[in-house]
């Protein structure tokens, strides 16, 4: 995930400030030098780094440590506020109030425009209840039209295409007319890209923009791209006139410097980030929440929003009631696992929870593999066995092994995790009755499968 490396380095820098009674020019200079190195290694533009550090130093020197606040906490607050400003300060709404509104996606080849077009269509359809028309204007790459068609079908959105023999300008005009005639709310135009900027590309994009007058023109930025991204974005902005950015592949690069630089250098907002390969993996960009993540504070608001979108409230309440009365069974444990899977990758979920341990890719792969094993094993049981695991004796376990292709050790591991979960939930139920609080975090769904993070989660990180 973007900023992983920067988060680790900043956390170590702030730790070393603890215990000092006052922020002085001496200790602030030493800290800023380390922050400078961390930002440059994260591929943040040097002009941005210079301005950022000057602002932090100006606000930090001479600040007294008040009450229980220590220097590291004060510096974190100052750095946090500066990062928020660097990222744009406030959220920027998507301009789709007019009907039909047009969104144009531009950028170089390989940044993920076609996939992002589908992600954006899925977002508008499901979260803003818009009727969306995807438009295939990349006539130079036939596979792009096929790809967009398949994606459109998978999310239940219409796609407009006229093949590869018609000019992109004409296609975009016909698409907009179709949107007017058939009451579409939003038209998304997937344009062609090139390996590098050329006059033909820019001329084509300029003509499309003049023809359809889009409300939004988004430049796709590959989060793993380097310093040249800013120059490319500026050229697109000068020629086409951008309204903002979408950061693609945000889940794949540990640096993330382009996100911290591009807003400052272009004065244009980042509006969305792509956080995975699935069509649902597109998040609104919130500068304050991203600053929280960069500084290792998690992002509980985003986690709760994801949970509210994915979790069935009735089922969640039903599960909580089962936990309270002691009737929690293997079906319920499997249902919880499936709900948590809807939130995204395990590592991604942990990053949103303050204070949770960081896991390695190997640990995440192990945990996800074990969760799949759990599902296969439980699905190989009869309904009676899932509801009454206590009847699972040796002969039944042998049958499950044959049916699932798993070992006796796998079967026993599932049952052990279930017992651990059940015991923890019984303890929680007692605490609740005694006025000691609810389930872990009162999280929708009654907590995570396996009894909470990290030790009892399938795959137990601390194993």
What does this entry look like structurally?
It is a single chain. The chain is of the alpha/beta class. The protein has three domains: 4-87, SRP54, nucleotide-binding domain (Four Helix Bundle (Hemerythrin (Met), subunit A), Up-down Bundle); 101-283, Rossmann fold (3-Layer(aba) Sandwich), CATH 3.40.50.300; 304-457, 434 Repressor (Amino-terminal Domain) (Orthogonal Bundle), CATH 1.10.260.30. It has 19 helices and eight strands. The chain has an eight-stranded mixed sheet, sandwiched between helices. Strand 6, helix 10 (257-266) and strand 7 form a beta-alpha-beta unit. The chain starts with a helix and ends in a 30-residue tail after the last helix. The model is unreliable at 437-463 (pLDDT under 50).
Distance between the termini: 24 Å
**What is the highest CATH level, the class of the largest domain?**
Alpha Beta
- Counting DSSP E segments of at least 2 residues, the number of strands comes to 8
What fraction of the residues are assigned to beta strands by DSSP?
5-15%
Question: Low-confidence stretches at least 5 residues in length (pLDDT < 50)?
Answer: 437-463
CATH architecture annotation name of the largest domain: 3-Layer(aba) Sandwich
- In total, the number of domains comes to 3
Radius of gyration: 26 Å
Count of helix runs: 19
Question: Helix amount, in percent?
Answer: 40-55%
CATH fold name of the largest domain: Rossmann fold
Arithmetic mean pLDDT: 80
- What class, by secondary structure content? alpha/beta
**The CATH homologous superfamily of the largest domain:** P-loop containing nucleotide triphosphate hydrolases
């Amino acid at each position: 995930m973007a900023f992983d490396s920067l988060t680790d380095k900043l956390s170590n820098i702030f730790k070393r400030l603890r215990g000092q009674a006052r922020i002085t020019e001496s200790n602030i200079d030493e800290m800023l030098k380390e922050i400078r190195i961390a930002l440059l290694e994260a591929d943040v533009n040097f002009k941005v780094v210079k301005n950022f550090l000057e602002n932090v130093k100006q606000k930090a020197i001479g600040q007294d440590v008040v009450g229980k606040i220590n220097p590291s906490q004060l510096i974190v607050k100052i750095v946090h506020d500066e990062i928020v400003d660097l990222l744009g300060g406030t959220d920027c709404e998507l301009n789709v109030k007019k009907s039909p509104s047009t969104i144009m996606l531009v950028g170089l080849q390989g940044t993920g425009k076609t996939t992002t077009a589908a992600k954006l269509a899925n977002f508008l359809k499901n979260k803003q209840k818009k009727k969306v028309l995807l438009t295939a204007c990349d006539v130079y790459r036939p596979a792009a039209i096929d790809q967009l068609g398949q994606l459109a079908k998978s999310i239940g959105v219409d796609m407009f295409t006229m093949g590869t023999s018609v000019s992109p300008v004409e296609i975009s005009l016909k698409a907009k007319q179709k949107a007017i005639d058939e009451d579409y709310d939003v038209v998304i135009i997937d344009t062609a890209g090139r390996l590098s900027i050329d006059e033909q590309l820019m001329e084509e994009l300029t003509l499309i923009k003049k023809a359809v007058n889009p409300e939004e023109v988004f430049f796709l930025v590959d989060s793993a791209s380097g310093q040249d991204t800013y120059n490319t974005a500026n050229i697109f902005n000068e020629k086409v006139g951008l309204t903002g950015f979408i950061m693609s592949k945000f889940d794949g690069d540990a640096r993330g410097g382009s996100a911290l630089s591009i807003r400052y250098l272009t004065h244009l907002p980042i509006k969305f980030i792509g956080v995975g390969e699935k069509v649902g993996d597109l998040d609104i960009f919130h500068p304050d929440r991203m600053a929280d993540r960069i500084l290792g504070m998690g992002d509980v608001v985003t986690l709760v929003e994801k949970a509210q979108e994915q979790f069935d409230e009735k089922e969640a309440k039903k599960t909580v009631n089962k936990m309270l009365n002691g009737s929690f069974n293997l079906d319920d444990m499997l249902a919880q696992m499936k709900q948590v899977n809807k939130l995204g990758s395990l590592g991604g979920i942990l990053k949103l929870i303050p204070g949770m341990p960081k896991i390695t890719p190997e640990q995440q792969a192990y945990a996800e593999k074990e969760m799949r094993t759990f599902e296969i094993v439980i699905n190989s049981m009869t309904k009676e066995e899932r509801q009454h695991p206590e009847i699972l004796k040796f002969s039944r376990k042998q049958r499950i092994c044959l049916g699932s292709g798993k070992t006796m050790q796998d079967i026993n591991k599932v049952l052990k995790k279930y017992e651990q979960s059940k015991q923890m939930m019984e303890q929680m139920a007692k605490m609740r009755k005694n006025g000691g609080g609810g389930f872990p975090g009162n999280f929708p769904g009654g907590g995570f499968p396996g009894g909470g993070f990290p030790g009892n989660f399938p795959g137990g990180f601390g194993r």
